[in-house]
Amino acid sequence: MPFRSTTEIVHAWVHGWVVSRGAADPVPRPWGFTVDVGQVKSATRHVLTADDEATVRKVAAEVAAPTVWLKVFADPDRVLEWAGPEWAVDEPGWLMSTELRRTPTTVPAGYTLRTWTRGGVVRALVVAPDGSFAARAQVAPTGHTAVVDQVETAPEHRRKGLGRLVMHTLHNAALDHGARVGVLGGTPDGRALYESLGWRTHAPLVSLYHRPA
User: Fold this and answer.
1) Which parts of the sequence belong to the N-acetyltransferase domain (predicted)?
2) What are phi and psi of 12, to 5 degrees?
3) The pLDDT of residue 213 is above 90
């Protein structure tokens, strides 16, 4: 893999994620990045490339406010202890990457795959035979790397190969845009799929939100 450290992967993930979500440009900090997201429940996120106790405690104390999130790449139990009782952990996550490879795609019978590009982000949508939502995902190529984001399959359409379909579609699209390496923040629902496609886990991705006692 082309990354020499977790910090390099975090850098690639942050810069692709802001393109994918239409967030503000990342502001470099001594300990990582600050990103303005501009959502009601997520105004700002602070992404730490540092993973030591002193830094996590310092940043958590300095930025504590409603709608503020922290992203830390370290053991979840330790991070929660360091951050303090006013912070709560969201669902588990993992920082993952892969070398992109072109793969032929086949759409299951009855389903329809649609893709489009807007603002540098390629989106893939699969609709069911009745026209309803079945699966989706998007990818933001940013040079050599591309961030895969918001992968989702409707519960009633799982185990039909739709997750693999949208992932392969986005892998191919990222390669078309010049990317060679994929990066993502995996969730419990998606981790098994990503690993089956050759994605490698580099570090836990701990998401903390401020919740005053």
Assistant:
1) 84-213
2) -65, -40
3) no
Contacts of 94 (CB under 8 A, 6+ apart): 185, 186, 191, 201, 202, 203, 204, 205
pLDDT band with cut points at 50, 70 and 90 for residue 1: low
Burial 49-78 (b: 16+ CB within 10 A, else e): bbbeeebbeebbeeebeeebbbbbbbebee
**Which two tokens mark 57?**
């405690």
Rounded CA-CA distance 54/64 in Å is 16
**Packed helices 76-83 and 53-63: angle between N→C axes, nearest 10 degrees:** 50
Arithmetic mean of pLDDT, 47-55: 97
- Give CA–CA dist 139/90, Å, rounded: 23
Helices and strands counted in the chain (H then E): 5, 13
User: pTM for the whole thing?
Assistant: 0.94
User: Smallest Cα–Cα separation from 69: which of 30, 35, 94, 19?
Assistant: 35
Query: Tens of pLDDT along 73-89?
Result: 999 999 999 999 999 99
> How many Å apart are CA 57 and CA 47, to the nearest integer?
14
Dump pLDDT digits (tens) for 126-139: 999 999 999 999 99
